[in-house]
Amino acid sequence: MNHDDALLRELNIYPLWLRRDVQVEAPPVAVAPPQPAPPEPEMKRTAAPPAPAAIQPSPYADLGWSELKQKVTDCTACKLRPTCTQTVFGVGDEQADWMIVGEGPGADEDIKGEPFVGQAGKLLDNMLAAIKLKRGDNVYIGNIVKCRPPGNRTPEPDEIAQCLPYLRRQIELIRPKLIVALGKTAATSLLGRDAALGSLRGHLHEFDGIPLIITYHPAYLLRSPTEKAKAWQDLCLAVATLQGMAEQ
Ligand code: SF4
To answer: Residue 51 carries which DSSP code?
Structure first.
């Protein structure tokens, strides 16, 4: 089994199928016994990605990368800081086209100071590899909150409200072409409204004029591997959205 095959098997999308209008450079397709036709993706793509718009300024609009990192390192603005080991700022290409946004650091991330390490991080890396991306190369990874919630609980609204301006400034500095939100907390925090994740994924949204794709959090996919195929559909939508922008 080659590396691409292994990736696709881990994502439960092997043999590979693709929407005809999604031109992902396809990893090898297995020659397999006759199989039922793949289900139609649930995605409903809009006719065109949202027009780029100036993103709203954050309260930290005057901060560059180094000042922003120091601000986060020193932050004690919410009740998450006393119980975490360290703040987890984000990692990756600071001029990336792709920005990945998760919920917050877990135990491994809290120790290492980097988002998405451990098993969920490994799955995220494989998801990125399946669309020919890799951490740190045209991809930036950040979280809604920079400090680990105790016991990996969901961040509370006041904690999100305190921390989100940091992410907003990161987005301003990076100016990614596309944001992928992983999980409900990331999705609803960026959208500013509550909704079930299942109703949000498969559609094109936007955050301050930047196309926003919503999919499952890798930690959830580890617990619910049958949902990995839907995550693959979402990644294909993300790739198609960027391709559509490039063709405009
Ligand atoms: S979670 Fe964000 S707002 Fe809260 S203390 Fe950490 S860096 Fe500050």
So the answer is: P
**pLDDT more than 70, % of the chain:** 77
Q: Where are the alpha helices (DSSP H) in the chain?
A: 3-10, 65-73, 107-112, 118-130, 157-174, 184-191, 197-200, 218-223, 228-247
Measured in whole angstroms, how far is the alpha carbon of residue 94 from the centre of its chain? Answer: 15
Cα–Cα distance, 121 to 105 (Å, whole number):
11
Residue spans of the domains in the chain: they are 3-13+59-247
With tokens 């939100």, the residue in question is: 181
For helices 228-247 and 118-130, angle between their N-to-C axes, nearest 10 degrees: 50
Tens of pLDDT along 40-94?
334 444 444 444 444 567 789 999 999 999 999 999 999 999 999 999 999 999 9
Q: What is the pTM of this model?
A: 0.83
Ligand 1 pocket, residue 188 CB under 6 Å: no
Beta pairing, strands 139-143 & 91-92: antiparallel
Q: Does the Cβ of 203 fall within 6 Å of ligand 1?
A: no
CATH code: domain 3-13+59-247 is: 3.40.470.10
Atom of ligand 1 nearest to the CA of 76: 5
Neighbouring CB atoms inside 10 A of 107's CB total 13
Q: Rounded to the nearest whole angstrom, what is the distance from the C-alpha of residue 104 to the centroid of ligand 1?
A: 10
